[in-house]
Amino acid sequence: MAPPSSDGEDGARPGAPVIETHGLTKAYGSGPPAVDGLDLSVPPGSIFGFLGPNGSGKTTTIRMLMGLIEPTAGGARLLGEPMPGAARRVLPRVGALIEGPALYGFLTGRANLLRYDAADPTADPRTRAARVTAALDRVGLAAAAGKKARAYSLGMKQRLGLAAALLRPRELLVLDEPTNGLDPQGMREIRGLVRELAADGTTVFLSSHLLDEIEQVCTHAAVMSRGRLIAQGTVAELAAGARGRLAVTTPDTADAARVLKEHGLTDLVVGEERVTGELPGPGAGVPAVVGGGLDPADLNAALVAAGVRVRAFGTERASLEDVFVALTGEGFDVAG
Amino acid sequence: MSRAETVEQAPDVRAPRPLWTLGLLRNELGMTFRRRRTLVLLAVLALVPVLVGIAVRVQTGDGGDRGGPAFISLVTNNGLFLVFTSLAATLPVFLPMALGVVAGDAIAGEAGAGTLRYLLVAPAGRTRLLLVKYTGTLVFCLVATLVVAASALVVGALLFGLGEVTLLSGTTVPLAEGLLRALAVAGVVALSLIGVAALGLFVSTLTGSGIAAMAMTVGVVITFQILNTLPQLHAVQPYLFPHYWLSFADLLRDPVYWDDIRRNLGLQAVYALVFGTAAWARFTTRDITA
Across the interface, do B125 and A168 touch by the CB < 8 Å criterion? Predict the structure, then answer.
């Protein structure tokens, strides 16, 4: 076995992607590939959201990144080094939560972490106890550290899994659905933790099927659907790709819809006391709020002039959900 | 390590230590022998000499001598023979079954619980994890054998007393030498199990269910035992791993008759090598999807 070389050109260049894949593909049997020709590029220091419905290939991708499964075609580099070839050098610098936590139910929470740390060849046994204590503190499990893991709730297990990823300072954290099973308070705490870690310079790769979660914490995102990557970029760029919608709250919905239509709005949706529509734009990619020359203020004046009683009026920012629907032309459901 | 990287990396990131495997092995052993399942298995094994001892005591109390294995009639003269009797009684079934549970669960249990993926991304390394698991299983073989021997020695001493040992060849040796020979027998019995241990580990790499792997390993052991008794299969029997198991009795002759013991250990080494390699080939290339 070759000794670990930490010098040479293999090391990560500053600014080089932390995760980079080229044509990464995994096929099982004769069916359509679970992951199909993925070209992913995760910039250093980002909080990268990996978004897609259940069954879209997120976890398979993460397993290939971590060297757990062999790609059928293509390759991946983690921290500038090829995976799974350089696993022994790379993985100690990567913390991971993959498809939920997995624990030894008959061991205490603390003993679980001691075992995972013992499995790391580069972890210093002299600092092991202190690092385990610090990781437990960080995820708020210090009080339950002596309990057997089988007595933990799903949220506590999730926290313990996170603690295992935080046993050492990491350059990259790969978190697969980290807020699964947590209550809203726990979700907020985890998001806070993710932001805190990113502020320390750790790149965070976060997979989720929760659009608002990605929108709340991530700087960058990639969207998966049926094994294919359909978009990636900064969250702002992605959201800009979808147009914003104008929303009017009024008791006179019929009149409002008519006026809006006269002014060139499309895709009108009339709800109870509420009308929304797409502002006309000269082309895709133009920030929707500008509305292609149509000033929303004029529109409001026109509505009032037509006798429509307006309670609320404004443009809704495009969400990642809109992006997703626009990109895939389908709902955000489990891929069949 | 270049200076630039030393600055970049966290202070406790170090080059892998050559002996780090021992840390994981220590953890593995601690986990195995603190586990209730292991303790129950060992307790059951410790109970076998008690039952055998009481049975022999009751039977000889009746005054009837119904033959039985070579050692049993000797037990009443010297409690030390309960050690050999108990090992002869547990080696064909109880020891391999207990071992099947531990070896079969080694990888499959971790896969079933999902902990395997976290060990691998730690990164434990597949070859090293397999070596740690195999070593842990071998330590269990040794401990299990010693538990049977120690329990038998205590029970034998209490029920029948200890004294000078008359070997199977008729020579009488002092108790100290008898105890040494008992220890050697326990060692050979433990070594007789390394083939089954490798077989169990290989089975364990095939499935993601600990229970399935345990059942399959124990099933294979029992099948081999049955095949070993069918006269029609006489030609293949020397290649079945249990075939020379009871050769440990040859350690109780003076001079020691080594041929079958050597054949036994050689056969176990072949099994360990074949199934160890198969386990390695399977485990290092397998997709970990559990």
Answer: no
